Amino acid sequence: MRLDKLLANSGYGTRTEVKELIRKGHVTIDGQAIFDPSFSVSEEMGSRILLDGEPIEAGEYLYFCLNKPDGYLTAMTDDRLPCVGDLLPPNLKTKKISPVGRLDFHTTGVLLLTNDGALSHQLTSPKWHREKVYLVTYSGEALTEKEVALFSSGMTLTEKGHAPEKLKPAILTLLPDNQCRLTLTEGKTHQVKRMLAQTGRSVIFLHRESIGSLHLKENQEPGEMYALSKEDIRLLKEGN
After folding, report:
1. Dihedral (C-alpha) 231, 116, 113, 134: value to the nearest 10 degrees?
2. What integer pLDDT is reported at residue 240 of this predicted model?
């Protein structure tokens, strides 16, 4: 692969921008400056390529974990409302990155952004049973062991105007101060809110803590994102 294409695909700028970086001597391989954007590189050379003295994270696909803030649509563009695509730096806006799954406008927390379509399908397909963990703040009476048993048995949603809908078993962990932790292996529309509503409670605040092995970094602020390491990606793909 051409050096400029590798850098552009890895999120270091547009083809024009990375060509300029290369021509100005910002890129070295094995300590030698490379000035030719068309220089041919192999995948195994990725760890030996430095940009301004720092190793690059090279690869065809890009993976980022965003701490989705409140008040953002899970979309890349929108004419009316703020969306997660607005949070990407300019050099990533042309990389065909998109969110995996969907968090509601007011739901916060872990949101994977990638251009890896195969992984996106794997994480959103019900047959893979990937765990998603939510921290829920709710109103109404405190949840009890009755709801723990109900959720673990695979409750059936019975909503006016809709056919009954059987859900997969879910793990409900009771917490103080009208909070709970809910672990799901599916992602039906407004599922957490609908499950709580059927028990007579209302969701006040919803925060996704993890998708499989993917968590927020310590002190990762709303709107901040980090690039997944090779180990992060491996664990996510293997379902760990």
Report:
1. -70
2. 58
Q: Per this entry, what is the length of the chain?
A: 240
Distance CA 88, CA 165 (A): 37
Full set of structural domains in the chain with CATH: 3-55 (3.10.290.10), 63-117+213-238 (3.30.70.580), 131-211 (3.30.70.1560)
Amino acid present at 43: E
Residues tagged active-site: 104
Which residues does 148 contact at the CB level (< 8 Å), separation at least 6? 172, 174
- Sign (positive or negative) of CA dihedral 64, 70, 74, 78: negative
Q: How far apart are CA 192 and CA 169, in angstroms?
A: 13
What pTM did the predictor assign? 0.79
Cβ 54 vs Cβ 12: under 8 Å: no
End-to-end CA distance of the chain: 32
Mind listing the pLDDT tens digit for each residue in 93-151?
Answer: 777 899 999 999 999 999 999 998 888 888 887 777 789 999 999 999 999 999 999 99
